[in-house]
Amino acid sequence: MSDDDKPSGVRVAAAKCVRCSQPVQPRFRPFCSQRCADIDLGTWFTGGYRVPSNEAPDEGESSLENQEKS
After folding, report:
1. Torsional class of 13: left (φ above 0), alpha (ψ -120 to 50), beta (otherwise)
2. What pLDDT, in 10s, does the model give residues 5-60?
3. Measuring CA to CA, how many Å separate 70 from each of 21, 29, 44, 51, 64?
4. What is the full DSSP assignment across 18-55?
5. d(Cα 54, Cα 18) in Å, to the nearest integer?
6. Distance CA 47, CA 40 (A)
7. Residue 67, Cα to own-chain centre: how many angstroms?
């Protein structure tokens, strides 16, 4: 095998928390701490993250959104 056939070295960077960019702790992966994990979960619960869709909202969802705006 010649030098041209050998794969180049792979560089692996330390994982960073998806919330605050601190080094990831294996216990809380992909977060650095329980706090960052809880903040992210709270964002999901409050509707901060949404998957885009072309579908019209269900009748129950639109009435819930109207109640929240009142």
Report:
1. beta
2. 666 777 777 899 999 999 999 999 999 999 999 999 999 999 898 888 888 877 76
3. 37, 38, 22, 24, 10
4. TTT-PBPPGGGTTSSSHHHHHHHHHHHHTT-S----SS
5. 28
6. 11
7. 28
- Name residue 27's amino acid: R
Enter the CATH code of domain 12-48: 3.30.50.10
Question: What is this structure's pTM?
Answer: 0.56
Is there a contact between 25 and 37 (Cβ–Cβ < 8 Å)?
no
Tokens 């994990």 — which residue? Answer: 37
For residue 57, the SS3 value is coil
